[in-house]
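Pipeline run #58 for the internal structure catalog. This entry was flagged by the ingest filter as a single-chain record with no existing model, so it goes straight to prediction. Upstream metadata was stripped on purpose; only the residue string is passed forward. Reviewer on rotation: M.T. Logging verbosity set to normal.
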Amino acid sequence: MRLDMWLIEKGYFSSRARAQREIREGRIRVNDRVITKPAHTLSTTDVIETMTPFNPYVGVGGLKLAAALKAFAIDVKGQTILDVGASTGGFTDCVLKHGAAHVVAVDVGRDQMVPQLVEDPRVALHESTHFLDTDASFFADVDVLVMDVSFIPALTLIAHATKYYHGPMVVLFKPQYASIETPKRGVVRDKRQHVRLLEQFEQGLKTLKLTLQKLMPSPIKGGSGNIEFLCLINETGPSSVDIHETVEQAHATYQ
């Protein structure tokens, strides 16, 4: 049996996409050896070990967002959430488990969200939908916007959101996608570059009349081992952000 299919069958992960991601990111061992190929064939005597921490959500993004909701003191109970870049549904599942009443989930891809969320009456899923093509109807009654996107600078999508939305945003900042410059092997490792990209991001928010109110390192690394950051963004309110200190904290954690 394939390694990815075995992990699903045994209940380690709820979707093939997530199982494959965990394998590719080096979190699965077979006979005490890290295996990074989802199609790896198992024998009946193989010993499989997962190094992924317990995750009550359908995707690792749920753990990231849960940390932000706690650190930023955001209560989503009974609220309507707009999930930009919903993918398999990690953020969506997280806010639902934290009591959200309704989620509008948008993703440019299709057939990615796990079936249990697709079938959940609290979720309105818009697949094959580029966020830049959304209109005011997507933002009706939205209380909190959450965002986890790849291959496009988050600032581009935030600028679009401000046309229709004026509430809090919780955004996963991915340095590897923060500019049109593609980092070598898709990984940003340099501390100074993290600081520079975050400062550029904060300046971009200011041009949109937005404030980077809070900033924290993601508790889990992103794809290819990238250090990521979680941001609380709003139109009003004071900022308690120290970019240099946060970057130092992130690198101390992941050194």
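catalog note: The longest helix spans residues 191-207.
catalog note: Helices lie at 3-9, 16-24, 61-71, 90-97, 115-118, 154-161, 191-207, 243-254.
status: ready for reviewer M.T.
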